[in-house]
């Protein structure tokens, strides 16, 4: 039970008097929460109110100070020009088939949003612009977040996001005429769209919060069916009524339109799986798996045979099959059994493609539907492969390949003989041959071996003075695999080192690796990251004076925890859209679903004390010098609400001493990152790199 005590506001100003930065006055309204007879002060609770004029004024005041500082960096404009120059090349995503057309995303260079093109399949017709999200808004802040075609490709429902919010709107189109059908659907969140023939589609939504839609608690996800050309108010709720309360619900229809599969869960890990026979018993919900201790997902169907990708009795995953009348797990039969390496699976041309991770590097195997290995696919190099998906009757599939210094190229693949050809290669002002990546294995605090990829120019001198960015995540079973980024390319072209460790909490080595970085094991994640930094320093890649730590979301928590535990370790800290108040994260939007990874402050005294021990907001110490810090967030982030970053920045400005600046950069009309216009992205990296290099003492760049 929490108690709240309100005192008169206290006006404070940062006690950091060694710099020329005059931080904004930040009001303290002291609130005390009591957890298990322990009182915890929360002086900046008022910053959680994103509808408050006081919060808005605070944001504007912080941004004014921050941008005054960033504008004073002498080479900020030069960085922006360099980023703009290298980013200005045509980019393309792997094509996909729908109906009589082949579709693909393309950006001509500096467009804020990718444009969807199409051309007729097996035709000499020219490509045409099918959908241009840059026309949705003048500043590019309305983005396209998903295309969902009917089975025959004649209809499309596409989702848009406004200002980076996770709330979506759905617009329905006739793909032949490009005419919009019916009204725009609203209040869709954490959802795709799955069509039932051409009649309508399924989608998921929460009830709209009564207060702030960006921060208020959402915990009841519901699956709806929308019939084409009907009003949304008449949409039928299929799953998620009062007796079926789940935080995350999704529905998908089998390709033959015979079955609806429903996934339901309360946490970001594990789910229940249900099925509705749309032909024979459309009102009955049947259970496939009835507990949330494992992840079970339908990959494909073949008649009444279901193919399920699961980690039930298989921490590294396996693909099984069963039939519609034998749903119980006792009847599941292995198609692709578990192996030493974790994998994911896709389907295309009547085959399964298992994408294994071997020390975070892609290894692809092709199987038939009986589970017979057809071939191991020799890839263009060591890196990350995505793709190998498509319709069952497709004669050609596509995949993309990249790594930390190789821009993504697209290949066309013949599934019959395993041969592939280069389909598209970018023309970019970046010479990959001048760079190299090295995978090392270092030892963490408890002796665990952790892999890390280190990328830089080939002629790098190990003198301990190389500006280095160490990027980490370590959570939610998410694997960090090699991939090309223009921003990282610019960093390395400037002479920087870019390092990514595969720390615990991720999914690189399956469920055990993930679990070893969750709840009461979360400190392992921070120890792994600290050990990565110490490796880079001990091997003379860099030193503490030239090391920056960066991470976003759960990675923002990682940076926040490490910089408060080891402020001496780095020169610059860059926590982005971070989960930084670990005692209250579960109070906002659907944050309670993260409890599998974090636990909550209310579940037990042991968990409360553990969270308190590393929560960044609660571990900023008085009169301590922290590294130069640039906290970044978006004012429309409704996944990790910006109050986390606001409160952390306020604590730093209050308690930090020394010459290092501690600033917060709050992007307007931006969310958690997805859909951010390219113009804003370039501005952000100009500021991040400028801040980083300048605080490393670098006064000129090439």
CATH class of the domain at 47-84 and 430-467 and 490-500 and 517-695: Alpha Beta
Largest sheet: 8 strands, mixed
- The number of distinct β-strands equals 41
Mean pLDDT: 94
Find the CATH superfamily of the domain at 47-84 and 430-467 and 490-500 and 517-695: Alpha/Beta hydrolase fold, catalytic domain
Please describe what this structure looks like.
The chain is α+β, with helices and mostly antiparallel strands and 702 residues long. Among the domains are: 47-84 and 430-467 and 490-500 and 517-695, Alpha/Beta hydrolase fold, catalytic domain (Rossmann fold, 3-Layer(aba) Sandwich), CATH 3.40.50.1820; 339-427. The protein is 17% helix and 35% strand. The chain is built from ten helices and 41 strands. The strands form ten sheets. It has an eight-stranded mixed beta sheet with strand order 34-35-37-36-38-39-40-41, sandwiched between helices. Strands 5, 6, 7, 8 and 9 form a five-stranded antiparallel beta sheet that branches. A four-stranded antiparallel beta sheet has the order 10-11-12-13, with no helix packed on it. A hairpin with a 5-residue loop joins β10 (142-149) and β11. α2 (76-87) packs across α10 and α5 (523-538) packs across α6. The longest helix has 19 residues, at 53-71. The radius of gyration is 25 Å and the shape is globular. Mean pLDDT is 94; it is low at 1-18.
